[in-house]
Write a structure and sequence with these properties.
Layout: H1 4-13, E1 17-18, E2 29-31, E3 34-35, E4 38-39, H2 44-49, E5 54-57, E6 68-70, H3 74-86, E7 93-97, H4 102-114, E8 119-121, H5 131-137, E9 145-149, H6 157-165, E10 169-172, H7 180-183, H8 186-193, H9 195-202, E11 206-210, H10 214-219, E12 225-230, E13 236-242, E14 248-253, E15 259-262, H11 271-283, H12 288-297, E16 306-310, E17 313-318, H13 324-336, E18 342-347, H14 356-368, E19 374-378, E20 390-392, H15 395-405, E21 411-415
Parallel strand pairs: 1-2, 2-5, 5-6, 7-9, 7-10, 8-9, 10-11, 11-12, 12-13, 17-21, 18-19, 18-21, 19-20
Antiparallel strand pairs: 3-4, 13-14, 14-15, 16-17
Helix pairs in contact: 1-3, 3-5, 4-11, 4-12, 6-9, 11-12, 13-14
């Protein structure tokens, strides 16, 4: 068995990690991970033939293959190696988690910090037990900042990431109704996300906290350093001054002069993501003009709060994820827009546990409050609750209906959980 220190020596010679032979680059270290339906050990030889420098395995039966190194457990080795690499850096590590908005917040924080510092940031949505260590291992020696996104759907997951990421700073966007099944209700969500603050509390870390959410005032108790932001109080205070079609924010407190930021984001709920990026930028002395420019130049391309025009229709594509909190915010924001021929394409919400039917029924109640040209519900527990709207079991059938019945001059909101693949509606 190879030690982590010896594995790190190999990593310094070949500083690139890969877990998928389809994405392998010559010179990568291949980590042969196992999952419910695959065993990476079976692909170790293929990875080496494709140019991997080393293949890290945990099945002794493959240890005879030249170029393999044996560990007790590949995933654990990947995480420990990431922690060892992280320990080489004496720079700020900012962890971002939350029920909604964490990826947009991460992207905005990255944009702001990158204006002044060389910043390593989670790519895409690599925010799980594999993505977090891969992000750490992607850090180069000249990095001046690290922004690490952490997703979680059960207790002790954030604590596990913190153990080897060791963040010096942290931000929880919010604690909404997401992954209720795994967390065990809304209090469980707060406890699970709050593991980030627990880590900061024990390690004299710094938190960026939104003052608008009452529950954060208790969650932030005992933190050594807190920088507050919000729409009413804090070091950074701002308000929505326009939200059609894009969000425009006025920051009235926090900088020498009031600052107006015209974003490319759809939805007034994104104000908190903007204010979060501003407060982080201010803490790290990014000039106000550069904060404004960085946020204004950020254009979402990841099906989050994204406005696209297609065949004579406007589409708000917010199909990356959905839970009751984000669903309500998206529908209410869409209802407020001054537009004609508004149509909803709403996909089911996953991981709701025993509350699933009730939460889907509440979405129906919210939809009922507003006039729509048409409402199309797709999959999930919408099949189990009464409603007067069109229903399709999957996005493929919904997309086929839209293709057959599409007209111009409509405004669409497309939203649903990732597994519903709601982006197919407008592909």
């Amino acid at each position: 068995m190879i030690s982590i220190a010896a594995l790190y020596d190999l990593f310094k010679q070949h500083p690139s990690a890969c877990t998928d032979t389809r994405k392998l680059q010559r010179g990568d270290i291949f980590f042969a991970l196992k999952g419910p339906n695959f065993d990476g050990n079976l692909f170790a030889e293929k990875a080496l033939q494709a140019g991997a420098a080393v293949a890290v395995i945990d099945a002794p039966a493959f240890a005879h293959i030249p170029g393999t190194v044996l560990v007790e457990d590949v995933l654990t080795a990947l995480q420990h190696l990431a922690g060892y690499h992280r320990s080489q850096f004496k720079i700020p590590f900012i962890a971002i988690t939350g029920s909604n908005g964490k990826t947009t917040t991460k992207e905005l924080v990255h944009a702001v910090l990158s204006a002044t510092y060389k910043t390593c940031t989670t790519q895409g949505n690599l925010n799980n037990h594999i993505g977090v260590p891969l992000t750490l291992l992607s850090m180069q020696a000249d990095a001046e900042m690290a922004v690490i996104e952490m997703g979680a759907n059960h207790q002790q997951e954030i604590a596990g990431y913190c153990a080897y990421t060791n963040p010096t700073h942290g931000l929880i966007t919010n604690c909404g109704k997401a992954h209720l099944e795994g967390f065990g209700g809304i209090e469980g969500v707060r406890k699970g996300k709050g593991e980030l603050f627990d880590h900061l509390r024990m390690n004299s870390g710094t938190a960026f906290v939104c003052s608008d959410f009452d529950y954060f005032h208790a969650m932030a108790t005992g933190l050594k350093e807190v920088h507050w932001y919000g729409t009413a109080s804090g070091e950074i205070v701002g308000e929505v001054i326009e939200s059609e079609p894009f969000l425009k924010v006025q920051i009235s407190k926090g900088f020498e002069e009031p600052m107006t930021i015209a974003t490319n984001l759809v939805g007034s709920y994104n104000i908190y993501n903007v204010l979060a990026a501003a407060v982080v930028g201010k803490q790290f002395n990014v000039p106000a003009a550069q904060i404004k420019e960085a946020i204004e130049h950020y254009v979402p391309t990841n099906s989050r709060s994204q406005l696209v025009e297609q065949r004579g229709n406007k589409v708000i594509l917010d199909a990356y994820n959905a839970n009751p909190t984000s669903m309500a915010a998206a529908i209410e924001n869409f209802a407020k827009l001054h537009a004609e021929n508004k149509m909803l394409f709403i996909g089911g919400m996953m991981e709701m546990g025993e509350d699933s039917e009730k939460e889907h029924a509440q979405v129906i109640q919210l939809i009922n409050k507003f006039p729509w040209k048409d409402v199309i519900l797709v999959g999930g527990d919408f099949a189990k609750v009464p409603h007067p709207y069109r229903y399709f079991p999957n996005s493929e059938e919904a997309a086929a209906w839209w293709k057959a019945n599409e007209t111009e001059g409509n405004y669409l909101l497309v939203k649903g959980s990732r597994s519903m693949k709601m982006e197919k509606i407008v592909e």
